[in-house]
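Long-time lurker. I teach an intro course on protein structure, and each term I like to show students one example going from raw sequence to a predicted 3D structure in token notation. This year I'd like something fresh instead of my usual example. Would anyone be willing to generate the tokens for the chain below so I can use it in lecture? Attribution to the forum is fine with me.
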Amino acid sequence: MITEIVEKGVYFIFSPVKKCSHISICIAEGLKKLGIPIFSNMDCWLIDLKNQEYLFKNDRQVHPNNCAIVVADIYFIEMTNNHPLFDLFYELNEEVILVIIDPNDSDHVLTGRTERLTAVIRVHMHKFRKYPSQYIPWAFGISERIRIATENSKLFSERKRQVLAVFRSSLNQSVRVAMNFCFISHLQDKIDINQNPITEIGNNISLNDFDYLYWSQFPTHHIPKWFDSLKNSMFCCAYGGNFYYADLDEKLLENSNLGQKPAIARWDSWRFWESLASGCVSIHLDFDKYGFLLPIKPVNWKHYVGIDLANPQEAAQRIIDEPELMAQIGLEGQRWALENYGSVPVACRFLDIVLGEEFGTIENLIDAVEDIS
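-- Reply from a regular --
Happy to contribute to a lecture. Here you go:
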């Protein structure tokens, strides 16, 4: 099967409104590095400004049925429901592997016609929610844009001893509000807290080719000044999400007024991966305690600082009292993130899922692809 994938390639289908998601970009960048052809229903995500080269290329000679794997973004599925394009996706040849990528912030799941799917790759999954069997936990991860933007970070000892607590404007972020009350308050008199809002780039500011390439496509997220702050700071608050009852719908159906499973939705955060890639000490909630699901989970107090909302003061005090541990966490977190969530390991994990087998190591899969190529 791996031979067929290398020969036929992977076809991505996007909504013309939302276009390509970050999750799709990370997977496709890794597939491209492995030498696997990438096709799409539209030209999307420019990677070479001078030559106008796109990561996702629309080749009118290539139909989804000609490819080994077809990946549809959830926004395409939502847009085309009850539309002929929706039927086209589900009525592709039986030998074509079908995958859906779901980067949605909501906790809803697909219903109906899922038996044809090999996998639904979903971010923000947690153990308090029941998911259909095809759902696979995923993460935002580190795209090539983020990896390059965070290169050449300062040594930990040379950075500013400050906590970046800066977030983009976003609705339904009750976790951030709670952490401001119960965690940041314990640090304020002991370490500098930088809460200055990010200033977006004005049209009159000169950018190098790399920054212009990605700012022009993703102006809300690619801000060089922000990456400079990350590379020069010791700590970064990287939590997000909102509190809710994971079984509330079930309880309402039972005529009960309240759910019994408090959980955190949309917990994955751009900040977490940007911060890890930069070598900052990344501050989030405790993944194990709050049931966050990932293909490979980071270890608390080794790769990141995970806060227990029942005792946030303890974590705040350790951040102040254990500078050597903090330096080690910054280094180990960066190494862990790049080794497990860079574009190539992400693509290898994707192929493991769709092939239904474990190659054992990334190196084994890369060797298999190179043998075919």
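Some talking points for your students: The longest helix spans residues 323-341. The radius of gyration is 21 Å.
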